[in-house]
Specification:
Chain A: Keywords: ATP-binding, Nucleotide-binding, Phosphate transport, Transport. The complex is a heterodimer of chains A (276) and B (285). Chain A contains eleven helices and ten strands. Chain A has 276 residues and is an alpha/beta fold. Chain B has two domains: 40 residues; 235 residues, Orthogonal Bundle (MetI-like fold), CATH 1.10.3720. Chain B is built from eleven helices and no strands. Classes of the chains: A alpha/beta (276), B mainly alpha (285).
């Protein structure tokens, strides 16, 4: 299949060489090399290679069904649960292949946190939500847990809003607060990477704005990969942008360049709203 | 007549059919219960509850029968709850979805509709004879457990299916193992539904007569069971026996025993509703 694609469509072989980022001596946190993804017979990702810069924000944009969420979920192996999922190629985190059989998936997910499209707090108190990731690691030190909970909530700019009422039911919070709670929950286990799958698509503009501000803050400490439908959002928050279309990586590079002077016509058409 | 009028008419017609259908069910049940209570209430007394069975109707009590029912239900619960819930969790969470699993799924549903007397024959062959348990409480409880396992498995699976996948994703993404996700998130969220299914299944078991007669529940047991290996009788078997007697007094005894059995069933269903509401109020998304 792979060789066929190459011989029939010489265009894709251009993508095979990794798109160069004009990185200013930044190191790459995540590296995807020639990744194919299949769900049974359907090919969701076709030969994508790209590097993600440490402590930066990388946005994946593209129309629905282009494979951007699938691609994002490769980084913490959330696709493993889907029946018929098959991947070729490799994904390196700090140089180590995360699909190697020696990798402990649970450990990987402590390093690579994730925030989902719809806020999905557990039906518990705010405190227990944030503490969950620590508790399942077997941490019993309640003082440490409480410190992490408060710290994470402050980091996610939620602590002041709930006035330190940690016993509040998570589901009683507003949608935007719930999403920031989910971010705090992900931060509590001290990941180095944060994956965000359309984190603001279920929220109103004001809540979305707060999340965007938060993402900007978090960049200082974390490597963030964000999938978004909202192109203004990608332009506002990200350092680098990847445009995916029909499972292929069309263009990847500096966000400003992608949005002002893209190399490919298809990218141009998409960001100007002519299709997708 | 224009279209809107026709639609309104259809709407009304279906509404009245619905009312008619509901009334039929409720009225027949009410007549049945009313009749039983009318016949049996006079016989209900403390003595009736604590007397041993006798060949004289007026001296007969249901002590051994309801004690037998309690013993049987306790053991049926102990056996069927962990097995049924465990199987449900496995099929829903661990089992791979392939042709074999859908074959299994269909057959479990089919098992729920096998006549109960067939389970009785199976129990007689396997537990009573092959495993030499005799006509004991244990053999009866195992047989009833087989009978209600499919119901518990199916309702457990339904309850687990109803847990939103977003909760599972959240737990997994934080580095929880499969079992941690099941134990900390999936089971608490689905426990109300699981419990409802289990108790409804037990309510079915409590009324079963045929399989227990086949397994060897006796009609006349002069003592209350002391251990799971004792012989036993249960309320439905006692009722069945009394109803088949020609004397009017025994039929009245049967009616009184039915009231007790209905009472136990209502209490169990009440508990089911209570737990369901309690857990559902806690789990809202």
């Amino acid at each position: 299949m792979d060789s066929q694609t190459k011989s029939n469509q010489p265009k894709t072989s251009q993508v095979k060489t990794k798109p160069k980022l004009n990185s200013k001596n930044q190191s790459f946190k995540l590296q995807a090399n020639n990744v194919d993804v299949f769900y049974d017979d359907f090919q969701a990702i076709e030969n994508i290679s790209l590097d993600i810069v440490e402590q930066s924000i990388t946005a994946f944009i593209g129309p629905s069904g282009c494979g951007k969420s699938t691609f994002l979920r490769l980084f913490n192996r959330m696709n493993d649960y889907i029946d018929g999922f098959l991947m070729n190629g490799s994904i390196l985190l700090d140089g180590n292949d995360i699909y190697d059989s020696s990798i402990n998936v649970e450990e990987l997910r402590k390093t690579v946190g994730m925030v989902f499209q719809k806020p999905n707090p557990f039906p518990k108190s705010v405190y227990e939500n944030v503490a969950y990731g620590l508790r399942i690691q077997g941490i019993k030190d309640e003082e440490y847990i409480e410190n992490r909970v408060v710290e994470s909530l402050k980091q996610a700019t939620l602590y002041n809003e709930i006035e330190g009422n940690l016993e509040k039911q998570a589901l009683a919070l507003s949608g935007g607060q719930q999403q920031r709670l989910c971010i705090a929950r992900a931060l509590a286990v001290k990941p180095s990477i944060l994956l965000m799958d359309e984190p603001t698509s279920a929220l109103d503009p004001i809540s979305s704005g707060k999340i965007e501000d938060l993402i900007h803050e978090l960049k200082k400490e974390f490597t963030i990969v964000i999938v978004t439908h909202n192109m203004q959002q990608a332009a506002r928050v990200s350092d680098n942008t990847a445009f995916l279309y029909m499972g292929k990586l069309i263009e990847y590079g500096d966000t400003q360049k992608i949005f002002t002077n893209p190399e490919k016509d298809r990218t141009q058409n998409y960001i100007t709203g002519r299709f997708g | 007549m224009n279209r809107a009028k026709i639609n309104r008419l259809k709407d009304k017609a279906f509404k009245y059919f619905g009312i008619f259908a509901s009334v039929i069910g409720i009225v027949i049940l009410a007549i049945f219960i009313g009749f039983v209570i009318y016949m049996g209430i006079q016989r209900l007394s403390w003595d009736f509850m604590v007397e041993l069975p006798s060949r004289f109707a007026e001296n007969s009590g249901i002590y051994t029968a309801w004690m037998g029912t309690v013993w049987i239900m306790v053991f049926t619960t102990l056996i069927s709850f962990p097995l049924g819930v465990g199987a449900g969790i496995y099929l829903e969470e661990y089992g791979k979805k392939n042709r074999w699993s859908s074959f299994l799924e269909i057959n479990i549903s089919n098992l729920a509709s096998v006549p109960s007397i067939i389970y009785g024959l199976l129990g007689l062959g396997v537990f009573v004879r092959m495993m030499q348990m005799g006509n004991s409480i244990l053999a009866g409880a195992l047989t009833l457990s087989l009978l209600i396992l499919p119901i518990i498995i199916v309702s457990t699976r339904e309850a687990i299916k109803a847990v939103p996948s977003s909760i599972r994703d959240a737990s997994n993404a934080l580095g929880a193992s499969k079992w941690q996700t099941i134990w900390h998130q999936v089971l608490p969220a689905s426990f109300g539904g699981i419990l409802t299914g289990v108790i409804l299944a037990l309510s079915r078991a409590i009324g079963e007569t045929a399989p227990l007669i086949v397994v060897g529940a006796l009609v006349y047991v002069p003592f209350a069971p002391q251990s799971p290996l004792d012989e036993f009788t249960v309320l439905p078997v006692q009722i069945y026996n009394w109803v088949s007697r020609p004397q009017e007094e025994f039929v009245i005894n049967a009616a009184a025993a039915i009231i007790v059995l209905l009472g136990i069933t209502f209490i169990m269903n009440g508990i089911a509703v209570y737990f369901r509401n309690k857990w559902q109020n806690k789990m809202q998304w």
